[in-house]
Here is the input.
Amino acid sequence: MKILIVNTSDIQGGAARAAYRLHKSLLAQDIDSQMLVQSKSSDDFTVVGPSTKMQKLMGKLYPTLDKLPTKFFKHKSKMLFSSSWIPFSSIVNRINEINPDIVHFHWICSGMMRVEDIAKIKAPIVWSLHDMWAFTDGYHYDESFDICKNGCINEPKNFLSKNIFQRKQRTFNHKKDITIVGLSNWINECSKSSVLLKDKKHINLPNPIDTNIFKPFDKEKARELWNLPQDKKLVLFGAMGATSDPRKGFDELSTAMKKLKDINIEFVVFGSSEPQNAPGFGFKIHYLGSLADDVSLVTLYSAVDVIIVPSLQENLSNAIMESLACGTSVIGFDIGGNSDMIEHKKTGYLAKPFDSKDLAYGIGWIINNENYAKLCLNAREKVVREYDSKVVAKKYIELYKGILK
Here is the structure.
């Protein structure tokens, strides 16, 4: 069985890291897996990237070119929008030349391929939904942050989005053999209720994580490595564009942190450098910038007492899964896929959606909990039981075999 994992990049970004982990998990189960990307950062020979200077150059230009149509339209939303219009990408030809038994899509935007190219792929497609883009009119997330009401953005907002919606509709009607993987229960139900993908087969399967890599590390040593204080309670917040993307919930978190004046804590931020006008919470904030390697992440998760993921909309967060695997409890709003991983008051705390007061309460509840060690143990056991790479890879292999039958 030959599987081809397709993603815009191999290790840059959350979807890329998740896709790469699945690829490595399949290889560990003796599955013939390759990964095809538009932009390659690793030196892994099992990842196929641009091979010529022209392909490498175009790979850098595609993201900019893909955004060109949006320059002529005014979008009310600040959410990421992808047109997927570029007609001269060679990715589909390369997919068919590799001739896999299954093509497994992950995040395929930034000009990687044209919507219509999907119908030209000869093999059956499995598509893991890392966001809403596959079943929307071009947006990757819903600006209203609701729970996919009315079929999840089924009303295109302007000529461009209507055009993209119709192009997807024609393509998905033509390409029948597409199986949708909802990485969380939430995104799975969103897709099943959408106009574009409601007729496709759906299955809820998560991303895998290697729990031999993401595991608890000595807290005292971890703090020494990061030059963090030993005598403080440390609260971690991290995301790509942590302080600039409104979907990440930094404003709600800021309000919550201002309510914690009587707790002896310091705040740690990764994924973002210190902004020009840094917020003042009345206690020290450590800005660590962007992190990429797993070792840094493991030691950081182990160094802190709790991580907050205050996203206003979230699918299946890598940060939550990684932190729980390292035995560190997580606080987040009870939205999206958070409840798949955070079991309220067992592995962490699920705050009422967008309620900064409850978010603040959850921080204090975990930090001062007399059963804190039990919370950490529960967190680790949850991930080992449900998300370990061996467990999850076997489920994907069963899916592939079922499709091929």
Summary: Residues 159-174 form the longest helix (16 residues).
